[in-house]
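Hey team,

Filing this mostly as a record. A colleague (T.K.) asked me to run one chain through the structure pipeline before their review meeting, and I want the input and output archived in the tracker in case anyone asks later how it was produced. No errors, nothing strange. Just documentation.

Input sequence:
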Amino acid sequence: MPGHLEGAILQRDKQTYAIVPRTPAGMLTPEILDTISYVCKKYEVPIIKITSGQRMALVGMREDQVEPIWEELKWKVGRATELCVHYVQACPGTAVCKLGLQDSLGFGLEIEKMFHEEPFPAKVKFGVSGCPMCCGESYVRDVGLMGTKNGWTVIVGGNSGGRPRIGDVLAENLTTDEAKALVRKFMEFYRNESGKRLRVSKFLEKVGIDAVKAAVL
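Output structure:
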């Protein structure tokens, strides 16, 4: 389990902290919800916030509460400030959605396992959508996957921040295995060729999609 202040984010008041437990692809269980409820009541955590990345932030705890809260949660840290994959956002896809064309939820969980806690030059966010409605926000994530009736579209270089950028299509009509292999190859290329703290979107602006295609396709 995390120790002392691992994964704790000092808040604006310079006195309290927030933690973000890891919730792959935003998936929860009744047992997880029971644990969150118990811990937040016991330690009087004042704010429980569902984040834009389908995660649950516990906010407002004292420094001496951080470690015992982690111990009781028995969860891994959902990295929120380090240079690594921060989250994989995924829509329900074919699991339940009538519009789903591909298993975005299952693929999102696979991506999470592939890259969890691997180091990268900057933070990385994934978006996985099961159809072109793109509810996983695939075009505005560092790496996006979008399901179609013909397979997966891989998108790179999106960003939804202060300088928004629509990602570039890297490849289309891929099988799940092909898409998985391409994402792995792209992430290795990005890690090896990008400067430190250069987000994927800035990396794409720097080298261009044609150079990326030449390197990984």
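Quick notes for T.K.: Residues 176-193 form the longest helix (18 residues). The CA atoms of residues 132 and 146 lie 6 Å apart.
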